[in-house]
Write a structure and sequence with these properties.
Layout: H1 5-14, H2 25-33, E1 43-47, H3 52-65, E2 70-73, E3 85-87, E4 90-91, H4 94-112, H5 121-136, E5 141-145, E6 162-165, H6 173-176, H7 180-187, E7 197-199, H8 204-216, E8 221-223, E9 228-236, E10 239-246, E11 250-256, H9 261-277, H10 285-294, E12 302-306, E13 309-313, H11 318-331, E14 336-342, H12 349-359, E15 362-366, H13 376-382, E16 388-391, H14 394-404, E17 409-415, H15 417-430
Helix pairs in contact: 1-4, 3-9, 3-10, 4-5, 7-8, 11-12, 14-15
Length: 431
C-alpha cells in the first residue's frame, strides 16, 4: 500500500509500460470488485477528436453556476497530474489520490496474475475516478472525457444521462481506422440505447455512421448546424461573442473568454447539453451565460502574454493545426510569426508541419521527454520552411524564442498536449 503521494503517482505512471490495451473486460472486473461505483454516478460522456476538454469546461462552468457540484475526468493534464480528477475545477487532493490508489492497487495486482492481464495506466486512473466520485467525494454530476476512441475506451462502462461527440478527425488512425467513417464508428460506440447524443461532427461520411448508430440504438440525436446552431459571431480581443439558437430558443450576446471559432462550436455543444440536462437539473439562461464567460481551459489558443505576444495551443493533430492556422491568419496576419513545435511520433506529421510552414516566418522543432515523442531532427527534415531550426533543449529554445520576439512579431508554442504540460509552467515562470 502507498504511504504517500509520490509512491502512488510513481505506481500509476509505471503502468505506462503496458501501453494501450483496448477493451472493457478489465474495467468490468474492477468495477464488480468495487461494487459498481460507475452505476452510482450521474454522468455526461464526451468523446471526439478535438474539443472534448473545452466542451467539458464550458458545461462544467454552466453547471457550477447553477449551484451543482461537478466532477470532471479529463486527459492529459497541463500543469499537474491531479487535474485529471477534479471537482468544480479543483484538482483532487494528494491525500485523496493516495486513498483511491490504495483502493485500486490490490485489484490491479490481482489482475496481473489473471488471464485478463494487468490494467493500463488509463484503466487504473479511470477506475480510481469512478471510486472517487461515487464513494470519496460524491458529485451531483460528473463529466467524463473519453481517452481514446470510444467503443473500447475504459470510460465506456458508463450509462450516462447524455453523450456528446464533438468532432471527428484523422487521429490515432493506427488504432481507430484510416477513414472518417471507421473512426466515427469507434467514436459512436459511446452512444447508448435511448440516451440522447449531441454532435458537432461535420463530415458527411462520419455523420452517416453516427446517425446510423443512433437510430440503431433508438438514441435521439442533436446535430450542430441542423437541430441547433449559432450566428452573429464576432471575434473579440480576448474572446468570442455569438448568438445560440435552436427550434425553440434564442440566447443572444453570449461571450467566451477562449479564442477561436472552434470554441463557439464547443460552447454551442455545451449549451445544447445544458438545455437537455434541464430534465434533471435546474439551469437558467443567466447561468448558461455566466458559465460560458467564466470558462477557461489552458493551452487552447491561449494568449499567455500580450507584450511580447505569446500564444500556446495544444494543436496535436491535423484538425487542431488547421484551427490554429485559421486563427493566426485571422488575428495576426500582420505579424512575423515564430513557431516552436513538438509532437508525438505516431501522428500524421507531414500535413501538420506543412500547414505550419505556410503560416510561419520561422520554425523551430524541439524534443521533449515522453516515450512516443518525435525527435526534433526528424520534424526538421519534414519541414519545407525556408527558415527552420531544431534543438534538443526545448527550454533553451523557448528562452531564445521569447527574447527574440520583436514588436511586430509573435511566438507560438504548439504541438503535443504532453509537451504543453511541461512547457506552460516553464513559460509562465520565465516571462
Amino acid at each position: 500500500m502507498f504511504a504517500n503521494y509520490e509512491e502512488a503517482l510513481h505506481w500509476i505512471h509505471s503502468r505506462l509500460r503496458l501501453g494501450i490495451k483496448p477493451g472493457l473486460k478489465r474495467m468490468e472486473w474492477m468495477m464488480e470488485r468495487l461494487h459498481h461505483p460507475e452505476r452510482k454516478i450521474k454522468a455526461v460522456h464526451i468523446g471526439g477528436t478535438n474539443g472534448k476538454g473545452s466542451t467539458v469546461t464550458y458545461l462544467r462552468c454552466i453547471l457550477q453556476e447553477a449551484g451543482y457540484k461537478v466532477g470532471t475526468f479529463t486527459s492529459p493534464y497541463i500543469v499537474e497530474f491531479n487535474e485529471r480528477i477534479s471537482t468544480n475545477g479543483v484538482p483532487i487532493s494528494n491525500a485523496d489520490l493516495v486513498e483511491i490508489a490504495n483502493a485500486v492497487k490490490p485489484l490491479a495486482d490481482e489482475l496481473e496474475n489473471s488471464d485478463l492481464g494487468g490494467p493500463t495506466e488509463f484503466e487504473v486512473i479511470t477506475a480510481m475516478s469512478f471510486y472517487y466520485f461515487a464513494c470519496v467525494n460524491k458529485a451531483d454530476i460528473v463529466l467524463y472525457e473519453v481517452g481514446l476512441g470510444g467503443r473500447f475506451d475504459s470510460t465506456n462502462i458508463l450509462q450516462p444521462l447524455l453523450s456528446i461527440i464533438t468532432s471527428i478527425g484523422l487521429d490515432h488512425t493506427n488504432i481507430l481506422g484510416e477513414t472518417y467513417g471507421e473512426i466515427a464508428f469507434e467514436k459512436s460506440g459511446i452512444i447508448k440505447g435511448g440516451i440522447p447524443v449531441i454532435t458537432g461532427v461535420k463530415q458527411e461520411e462520419a455523420l452517416k455512421v453516427i446517425e446510423e448508430q443512433a437510430e440503431k440504438k433508438h438514441a435521439p440525436i442533436y446535430r450542430l448546424g441542423r437541430h441547433f446552431s449559432f450566428k452573429d459571431h464576432e471575434s473579440l480581443l480576448f474572446g468570442e461573442s455569438f448568438t445560440f439558437f435552436d427550434e425553440n430558443l434564442k440566447i443572444e450576446d453570449l461571450t467566451l473568454s477562449m479564442l477561436g471559432r472552434h470554441q463557439i462550436e464547443n460552447a454551442s455543444l455545451a449549451v445544447m447539453a445544458a438545455l437537455l440536462l434541464k430534465e434533471y437539473f435546474t439551469i437558467e439562461e443567466e447561468q448558461i451565460r455566466n458559465g460560458l464567460k467564466q470558462a477557461y481551459w489552458p493551452g487552447r489558443f491561449e494568449l499567455i502574454s500580450t507584450s511580447p505576444i505569446i500564444v500556446m495551443d495544444g494543436a496535436h493533430n491535423e484538425e487542431g493545426i488547421q484551427s490554429l492556422v485559421e486563427e493566426l491568419n485571422k488575428r495576426y496576419r500582420d505579424k512575423s510569426i515564430k513557431i516552436i513545435f513538438a509532437a508525438l511520433s505516431d501522428k500524421k506529421l507531414d500535413n501538420m508541419i506543412h500547414r505550419l510552414d505556410k503560416v510561419a516566418d520561422e520554425m523551430t522543432f524541439v524534443d521533449f521527454e515522453y516515450p512516443r515523442a518525435a525527435k526534433a531532427e526528424s520534424l526538421f527534415e519534414i519541414s519545407t520552411s525556408k527558415k527552420k531550426f531544431f534543438k534538443s533543449d526545448w527550454r533553451q529554445a523557448i528562452k531564445e524564442g521569447v527574447r527574440s520576439v520583436t514588436e511586430d512579431g509573435m511566438l507560438v508554442i504548439t504541438g503535443s498536449l504532453y509537451f504543453l504540460s511541461e512547457a506552460m509552467p516553464f513559460v509562465r515562470e520565465h516571462l
